[in-house]
């Protein structure tokens, strides 16, 4: 477990080069998040527009001590305006993985969503082979809800995804 304090904060302009590598460089992205090349400036434009804190998606920097370690994101979902919920995700720099930073960052994001929105539900999903992320979600208190077959296309193959949910009323570790 990482001994440095983990915190979340809005993405700063100084974070954008590292952020760009996290979404555009296959070597940095890692095996479970590389889905091919996309517009490399899309997040810079969104940051210039609203600091990556728009109406339907919030992206926060993950920091351990003074180190920018990656980001967490929450996207508003739900069919009805009276029952929105959030889907979260995380992307860490390679040197930040395996240090407990991701687990703590996701815990902080869930705490933030429950404290600052009326949502009842937060969900997350990951590749069926991403055992480290599944463990992290379970440590935060998420319940494995099932497997969606062939939900992502990556590296020339359809991949299954594991879906997790956490309710405001669930007991958490």
TrEMBL record:
Q: Where is each N-acetyltransferase domain found?
A: 6-169
Single GO term (MF): acyltransferase activity, transferring groups other than amino-acyl groups
- CDD domains in the record, alphabetically? NAT_SF
Q: Which InterPro entries match?
A: Acyl_CoA_acyltransferase, GNAT_dom, N-acetyltransferase
Q: Which UniProt keywords apply?
A: Acyltransferase, Transferase
Report the sequence similarity comment from the record: Belongs to the acetyltransferase family. RimJ subfamily.
Protein name according to UniProt: Alanine acetyltransferase
């Amino acid at each position: 477990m990482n001994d440095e304090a983990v915190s979340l904060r809005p993405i700063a302009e100084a974070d954008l080069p590292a952020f760009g590598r996290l979404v555009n460089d296959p070597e940095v992205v890692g095996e479970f998040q590389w889905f091919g090349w996309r517009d490399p400036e899309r997040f810079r434009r969104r940051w210039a527009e609203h600091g990556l804190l728009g109406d339907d998606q919030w992206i926060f920097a993950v920091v351990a001590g003074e180190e920018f370690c990656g980001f967490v994101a929450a996207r508003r979902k739900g069919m009805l305006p009276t029952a929105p919920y959030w889907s979260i995700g995380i992307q860490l720099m390679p040197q930040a993985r395996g240090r407990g930073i991701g687990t703590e960052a996701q815990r902080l994001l869930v705490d933030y969503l429950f404290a600052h929105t009326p949502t009842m539900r937060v969900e997350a999903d990951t590749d069926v082979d991403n055992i480290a992320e599944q463990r992290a979600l379970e440590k935060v208190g998420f319940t494995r809800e099932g497997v969606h077959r062939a939900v992502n296309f990556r590296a020339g193959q359809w991949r299954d995804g594991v879906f997790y949910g956490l309710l405001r009323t669930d007991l958490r570790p």
